[in-house]
From TrEMBL:
GO terms for molecular function: inorganic diphosphate phosphatase activity. Residues 181-307 form the DHHA2 domain. This is inorganic diphosphatase. InterPro entries: DDH_dom, DHH_sf, DHHA2, DHHA2_dom_sf. It comes from Lactiplantibacillus dongliensis. Keywords: Hydrolase, Manganese, Metal-binding. Its cofactor is Mn(2+). The keyword Transmembrane does not apply. SMART domains: DHHA2. It catalyses: diphosphate + H2O = 2 phosphate + H(+). Its EC number is 3.6.1.1. It holds the Pfam family DHH.
């Protein structure tokens, strides 16, 4: 049996890293030969998680085809979010919790997608179905991924399944998930040490919306004014990436993790669909989005509808 690589999306967040580790552990227990890798370095939140559980970071790759013929994807399916040579390898498995878009394969594959708050929640269910025990350290990592993706179970993407799984994983890991979760989320909001490019690249995904390439970055913070004190520099960094990468529109969603409100910074064109999506006029390149915390559920769907209108 040939070895396969397992990885999450580019600009990996905690779930992209942890889901790859978790699925690799499960698949290897079931007889496969896999290695979890990453498509980028871990962000500060993920670094906090890995350090807390004394877990090594994943090896970073830029291409898969020089190493393997076949790969497994976690936490994404859209090719522009995946490894650069995704077209040159066979995708044998996908485990995800996002929309399915621009994805097709030449051969049948294992595809598991559920509308849950986190990919690691889906993988937890796969452990249970296959009667494979989750080790305490891995339980802590998976717990961290769910906390990250659901903002400590406050995001509208959170389901009762996510809540139940967090409680079970917390028992396995021996963790007070509320106290640990808040500490973990705050660890990812140290913005002062990062450049504007680092801020907009740390958690960003590209979407093809009716012929336009839209890049959506999310910055978690406990102080929105701290982010927008740097608005001019953030706009300059986004404009530079638009020019370098061919993005039409760069959207920066700054989210206050304490009160679950966001501000959207809009750089590029077209802007009319953005105003349509959220029913507001852009002022000073910004939109106030109270109650919006989820890119997956509250940002991309209305944008998709507006671009397709």
């Amino acid at each position: 049996m040939s070895k396969e690589l397992i990885f999450g999306h580019q600009s990996p967040d905690t779930d992209a890293i942890v889901a790859a580790k978790a699925l690799s552990y499960l698949e290897n227990k079931l007889g496969a030969d896999t290695e979890a890798v990453a498509l980028g370095e871990p962000n500060e939140e993920t670094q906090f998680v890995l350090k807390h559980f004394d877990e090594p970071a994943l090896r970073v790759i830029t291409k898969a085809a020089p190493e393997v013929d076949s790969v497994m994807l976690v936490d994404h399916n859209e090719p522009q979010q995946s490894v650069s040579d995704i077209a040159d390898v066979t995708v044998s498995h996908v485990v995800d919790h996002h929309r399915i878009n621009n994805f097709n394969t030449a051969q049948p594959l294992f595809y598991r997608a559920e509308p849950l708050g986190c990919c690691s929640t889906v993988i937890y269910k796969m452990f249970a179905e296959n009667e494979v025990e989750i080790p305490a350290k891995l339980a802590g990592l998976m717990l961290s991924a769910i906390i990250s993706d659901t903002l400590l179970l406050k995001s509208p993407t959170t389901t009762q399944t996510d809540v139940d799984v967090v409680k079970d994983l917390a028992k396995i890991a021996g963790i007070d998930y509320q106290a640990y979760g808040l500490e973990m989320l705050k660890a990812g909001t140290n913005l002062a040490s990062k450049s504007e490019k680092e801020l907009i690249d740390a958690d960003a995904k590209s979407f093809e919306l009716n012929g336009s390439t839209v890049r959506v970055a999310q910055i978690n913070t406990v102080d929105l004014p701290e982010v927008f004190d740097r608005q001019a520099a953030l706009e300059a960094a986004a404009k530079a990436e638009n020019a370098a990468e061919g993005y039409d529109l760069f959207l920066i969603l700054a989210t206050n993790i304490l009160d679950s409100n966001s501000e959207l910074l809009v750089v590029g064109e077209p802007t009319a669909p953005v105003e349509t999506a959220f029913g507001k006029k852009i002022e000073n390149n910004r939109l106030s989005l109270p109650g919006v915390v989820s890119r997956k559920k509250q940002v991309v769907p209305p944008l998709t509808d507006a671009f397709n209108a």
